[in-house]
Amino acid sequence: MIEYNGIVNDIIGLKLTSMELFIFIVSALVLSLAIDVIFGELPTRIHPVVIIGSLIDFFKKLFIEMKNRLSGLLVVIGVCAVSSVILYIIYLFSSLNGIILFIIFSILLSSTFSVKMLIQTAIDVKKALDDSIEKARKLVSYLVSRDTEELTESFIVSATIESLTENITDSYVAPVFYYFIFGLIILHYPIDNSLFYLLLIPMFYRISNTMDAMLGYKSEELSYIGYFPAKIDDVLNYIPARISGIFVVFSAYLLGLDGKNAYKIMMRDARKCPSPNSGYTMATTAGALNIQLIKKETYILGDDNKDITADDISKAVKLSKTTIILYTITIILLFALLFGIL
User: Fold this and answer.
1) Domain extent for 259
2) Which pLDDT score is estimated for 191?
């Protein structure tokens, strides 16, 4: 067991032993996941991602005229610096009481992932398809960057499953991965204000992911300023994306889907996508469901073993849910095991 020499001066007025810190880390994740699953996203006016988006827009306007890749790095530094100050102020006020800190910490942690919205959006497209294809096209247009006005039902289903499975990584697996990695670090090497940094790490990931979404598109306007945000996001998602793919394979086996084919297609087709990371969950899902996921003139994932239908959305939703649950259980057990060994 990790020795803390008795206690850790972790936050103002609150001292945590190593076991208490371990319990805090695990309990905060469980509560934050429950908050997200039950209540969904925070109100727009106070949602950290919305605030981050406003900061990104501010620094984008400030540096975009530089016409240099350094502009993107300056945006990253500026947004991270201001976000850190805002988060630290919230941390200082909430740390005056341990219970309040735990609740606020969990709420903020829940904002770094988006499980309910991820799942519900796919379900909504499935329901829309039952009503009218025009309604489904409109919903899908919010999920993907491609033109959806002429999409047939099969391409709508494909786009929905692609969006759902691609976002398993950045909407949950990655922020939780970095949360627990840093959790192990502070358990082994205690530092002042460790809970602040524990929350800051997944928040930095969400900042990176949001910057990539807003600036990382390969357009003439964003070609310079979007370079560093896109590259940073690629690096941060490299390991989590591959972990996500493996857990999709395991989940396919648990659900009685084609786990063997899921792994085969992941290894064969994951690198076909322009992104170095997004294909690892999309290709694996295509293999598990024995379908093809197609983005015209960009990629084809999987084999054309059967026609893709709206029912495949439901299967992909179930597969995604199982992946998230299995990953959560596994990473908590692994965290507990490493806590006991270190």
Assistant:
1) 8-341
2) 85
